[in-house]
Design goal:
The structure holds two protein chains of two kinds. Chain A is mostly helical. Chain A has a single domain, classed as Four Helix Bundle (Hemerythrin (Met), subunit A) (Up-down Bundle). Helix content of chain A is about 75%, strand content about 0%. In chain A, helix 3 packs antiparallel against helix 4. Chain A is elongated, with a radius of gyration of 21 Å. Chain B has a single domain, classed as Cytochrome C Oxidase, Chain A, CATH 1.20.210. The chains are: A mainly alpha, B mainly alpha. At the A-B interface, helix 1 and helix 5 of A face helix 6 and helix 7 of B.
Chain lengths: ~220, ~525
């Protein structure tokens, strides 16, 4: 195996002994960060479990207010974006930088589609007054405290949407860096880390979708 | 041979304020943190002194009840989130961890610097909160009061939310550094026990802090939008906040104490000049404490109305924590047995730790027992227990560690006599402050009260006098350390004759890249007979 001298300073920072050590460290760091994200969302999943267990009828009645078609569509969109992300990483690993940029852009576009759909879902609920806590003015759901479902719904999907936006910023940054030829078959760690983060954002949605849209 | 401070060291090169504010050197980040947490400790300490001043008399003496409520809240919040959580990992951990495992830096140096800026940014929110009139909820921010209080809860909780990221990044950095950057030959069981303790601490930082983050976020949402998750009128449950809060905050006390235990392992061995006894037991007990720490949060909630069965389980699990803690204490004692103990200042703090932590731990067992807790819950007994563990444990260890690594950090030795005097004053002052609080608690004095019955006055007065005396001790310690920077004698590479890499293979202060060449691991961290470079 031939050893290439690094093209850029960040391909081998001077406190690492070789590029493999650097890449493995970065990936381990990212795994740990993803773990903190799971625990962060974990609090909300826990709150969901507790309130659903104590108010099963409200969760069942209120979930019908969500648009199953849009939810399903968004789920498909995010799964596709995970695929394009994975292909983008693979392309850059194979030095097909242009293709990589293309797939990263596709991922970015799918993320935008997700947010646009989410925006329409949200504005519809704002319009009807299906809102958390004291802002809840809708009257079409039976049972006491139906707003609890929407408190949980908006907290969970809102936090998830913020993560989608953060992911879009990271993906845009990767597109910019790839276009500046920062990445190659030798050095692609940041793209890989962005991909790991993006898959987690998708995974969270994969759990949110059935819990919120497919109750009962 | 006349010793000199090495020309090339991290303090001198590179020069200029910008080189400090943009540094990625773990040693400089440690110094930045040292300055910040010292300021936090001073601020939190002033709040404590004002509390003790007010409590000299049973009536309203120097301030209003509202001011008093804010003072104890700010004392707790500042001391815990701005001082104790970051203090030992981010200051001493940052400085020694890469050195101890033979690395040139932590795994992510820029993230390390970012964590300091995030700390700084979070602290600004805390200061804004104080400027806007402070918070009066107690550092625990229990709902429903925290959702109703008219004080500036949001800036403070937002600040703590941000500080959490700083803590997470430090922990994440340490875990990866330990896994990936150990020098060749530095196996897991060659690592100093300080590294094991920092590793266990980092695991808690990473796993527990996100739960605090989501808890505080929900509290902020509750205040901003009345989402009702913690509001019983709207179908929510205020007890859920307590569960969430303690799921973080109980492990958090181990974030504060575990690195201290790591320091004590180093100090006891070095100043007994004897190989540590039961190395693996101490190492694994750190991990055991980290693990058990996640399973005991319910012992803060015995009187909250949680099920009796849950309380029994939590009580049992709480008792289990005593086992790894006891394992450590007995191993330290066994290390000292037949050692040739010397009484330098760091060792005095280690002795303080052993006595005070043992008392603090033992009284924790009282509180973990269901029946006694019903009597002692929310009394001064809890306050005393907590301070015995946190000040008597974590702060004593931090002081010991600071005095131990000071000559490595700055290359100069402090005045041993006066620093010892300070250590003794702090020990005596501490006991006068907090031992009476055990008695107050058992007699039924509730915590956080502004006014109290006249029969409690004598004990409160002893406590207040002790607090002022202890404060004098900390001032003397600070003066001794700071003056050593200017006129302390040159310490040399290894003034204590210690066997870990930061002493045997690096200069004092170390060079920017820590080591001339990557250290070869030729002996264990406690093989003192193999040390050849003792400098005094």
């Amino acid at each position: 195996m031939t050893i290439h001298p690094p093209t850029y300073r960040w391909e081998l920072l001077d406190h690492y002994s070789d590029a493999t050590q650097q890449r493995e460290s970065a990936k381990l760091g990212m795994w740990i960060f993803l773990l903190t994200e799971i625990l962060f969302f974990g609090g909300l999943f826990c709150a969901y479990a507790i309130y659903r267990a104590s108010n099963p009828d409200i969760f069942f009645n209120a979930h019908k207010a969500l648009d199953l078609h849009l939810g399903t569509f968004n789920t498909v969109v995010l799964i596709c974006s995970s695929v394009t992300m994975a292909v983008a990483i693979r392309s850059i690993q194979l030095d097909r930088i242009k293709a990589g940029i293309g797939f990263l852009t596709a991922t970015l576009g799918l993320a935008a589609v997700f947010l646009v759909v989410k925006f329409f879902e949200y504005s519809h609920k704002f319009h009807l007054g299906q809102l958390p806590g004291k802002y809840y003015t809708y009257t079409g759901i039976k049972g006491t405290n139906p707003h609890l479902f929407f408190s949980v719904y908006f907290s969970m999907t809102g936090l998830h949407a913020l993560h989608v936006i953060a992911g879009m910023i990271a993906i845009s940054w990767m597109i910019y860096r790839a276009s500046r030829k920062h990445f190659s078959a030798r050095y692609y760690t940041p793209v890989e880390l962005t991909g790991m983060y993006w898959h987690l954002v998708d995974m969270v949605w994969i759990f949110l979708f059935p819990l919120l849209y497919l109750v009962g | 041979m006349e010793m000199t401070i090495p020309q090339h060291n991290y303090l001198r090169e590179p020069k200029g304020l910008k080189s400090w504010l943009l540094t990625t050197d773990h040693k400089r980040v440690a110094i930045l943190y040292l300055i910040s947490v010292t300021i936090s400790f001073l601020v939190g300490g002033i709040f404590a002194m004002l509390i003790r001043l007010e409590l000299i008399g049973p009536g309203a003496d120097f301030m209003t009840a509202d001011t008093y409520n804010k003072l104890f809240t700010l004392h707790g919040a500042v001391m815990i989130f701005l001082f104790l959580i970051p203090a030992t990992p981010a200051v001493l951990g940052n400085f020694v961890l890469p050195l101890m495992i033979g690395a040139r830096d932590v795994a992510f140096p820029r993230l390390n610097l970012a964590s300091w800026y995030i700390y700084f940014f979070g602290s600004i929110f805390a200061v804004v909160s104080i400027y806007l009139g402070g918070v009066d909820t107690g550092w625990t921010f229990y709902t429903p009061y925290s959702t109703q209080s008219t004080t500036s809860v949001i800036p403070m909780t937002l600040g703590i939310f941000i500080l959490g990221f700083s803590s997470i990044f430090t922990g994440l950095n340490f875990i990866v550094t330990v896994h990936k950057l150990r020098a060749p030959g530095m196996t897991w069981f060659q690592m100093p026990l300080m590294v094991w303790a920092l590793y266990a601490t980092a695991v808690i930082q990473v796993l527990a802090t996100p739960v605090l983050a989501i808890t505080l976020l929900l509290l902020i949402l509750e205040r901003l939008f009345n989402i009702g998750i913690f509001d019983p009128l709207m179908g929510g449950d205020p007890i859920l906040f307590q569960h969430f809060f303690w799921f973080y905050s109980h492990p958090a006390v181990y974030i504060m104490i575990l690195p201290g235990m790591g320091i004590i392992s180093e100090l006891i061995s070095v100043f007994s000049h004897r190989k540590i006894f039961g190395y693996k037991f101490i190492a694994f007990s750190s991990l055991a404490i980290a693990f058990l720490g996640f399973l005991v949060w319910g012992h803060h909630m015995f009187v909250s109305g949680q099920s009796e069965f849950a309380s029994m389980i939590f009580s049992l699990l709480t008792f289990l924590v005593a086992i790894p803690s006891g394992v450590k204490i007995f191993n330290w004692l066994a290390t000292m047995y037949k050692g040739s103990i010397t009484f330098e200042t760091p060792m005095l703090y280690a002795f303080s730790f052993l006595v005070l932590f043992a008392l603090g731990g033992l009284t924790g067992i009282f509180l973990g027992a269901l029946a006694t807790d019903v009597q002692l819950h929310d009394t001064y007994f809890v306050v005393a227990h907590f301070h015995y563990v946190m000040v008597g444990g974590a702060v004593m260890a931090l002081m010991g560690g600071l005095h131990y690594w000071w000559p490595k950090m700055f290359g100069r030795m402090y005045n041993m006599f006066w620093s010892s005097v300070a250590a003794v004053i702090i020990f005596i002052g501490f006991n006068f402050t907090f031992f009476p609080q055990f008695l107050l608690g058992m007699k039924g004095m509730p915590r956080r009260y502004f006014l109290y019955q006249p029969q409690f006055q004598s004990l409160h007065d002893v406590s207040s006098m002790g607090a002022f005396f202890m404060g004098i001790g900390f001032v003397i310690a600070a003066i001794v350390l700071i003056s050593s920077l200017f006129k302390g004698r040159i310490a040399g590479a290894n003034p204590w004759g210690a066997a870990t890499l930061e002493w045997t293979n690096a200069t004092s202060p170390p060079s920017t890249h820590n080591f001339e060449t990557t250290p070869e691991i030729t002996h264990g961290p406690y093989d003192f007979d193999k040390v050849t470079n003792r400098s005094t």
